[in-house]
Specification:
- This protein is an alpha/beta fold and about 200 residues long.
- The chain contains 7 helices and 10 strands.
- Strands 1-8-2-3-7-4-6-5-9-10 form a 10-stranded mixed sheet, sandwiched between helices.
- A hairpin with a 6-residue loop joins strand 9 and strand 10.
- The longest helix has 11 residues.
Length: about 200
């Protein structure tokens, strides 16, 4: 399986544009990604991970502008985005009506992260759309911790971006859709840090 250096953005963007699936390093864990604006790309990503249809994929955007294109961002969410993104957080936001139903199984919300490195930001921009981003492993199994492990676990990938991860634990998931924020999964960002920003 071909491994690409972080400077080979154009080649990796071509794979995504052709509905391919790549493994990439994020700040939390190794991820696998595919273009959000293609149902075929989503199917290919499900095949790589053997992920059930009932589980929607989180989405990674290049920047705040891209987040606002697919989700509603109120003042509170904007403050949190500016404080913690890019970083080890996933925000649950209400999706915009124009986002196709296949993207998240027809639910009203999206789980959104922001690109956590310049290479990922460039790749998403070059691909021309946000990407589905999920951990590099078979659905229900432990997350892979090296490129060799990913290659064994996900042999049908179309390529891999080289690089390291830093936190080694999954992101904090924060539901921003209700009147009160809810932490759905504890990760590197704590509720205390969030409350300090909102005071």
């Amino acid at each position: 399986m071909k491994r690409y250096s972080q400077s080979e953005i154009a080649a990796m963007a071509e794979i995504l544009k052709n509905d391919g699936v790549l493994s990439v390093p994020t700040d939390t864990v190794y991820g696998v990604c595919a273009r959000m604006d293609s149902e075929k790309a989503q199917e290919n990503l499900r095949d790589v991970k053997h992920r059930p249809l009932t589980k929607a994929f989180p989405v990674m955007c290049a920047d705040e502008d891209q987040i606002k294109e697919i989700a509603y961002v109120d003042d509170r969410a904007e403050r949190l985005i500016r404080a913690f993104m890019p970083g080890p957080v996933t925000f649950i936001l209400k999706k915009k009506e124009e986002v196709p139903a296949y993207v998240n199984g027809g639910m009203e919300t999206l789980a959104i992260r922001m690109a956590t490195s310049d290479a990922l930001k460039e790749l998403i921009k070059a691909a021309g759309a946000p990407v589905f981003m999920t951990s590099a492993n078979q659905s229900g199994e432990p997350v892979c911790t090296s490129l060799d492990e990913i290659e064994k676990s996900c042999p049908t990938l179309d390529g891999m971006m080289e690089g390291n991860v830093s936190f080694g634990e999954a992101s904090t998931i924060i539901d921003c859709t209700g009147s009160e924020l809810k932490i759905l999964r504890q990760g590197p960002v704590t509720i205390e840090q969030i409350e300090m920003v909102l005071q």
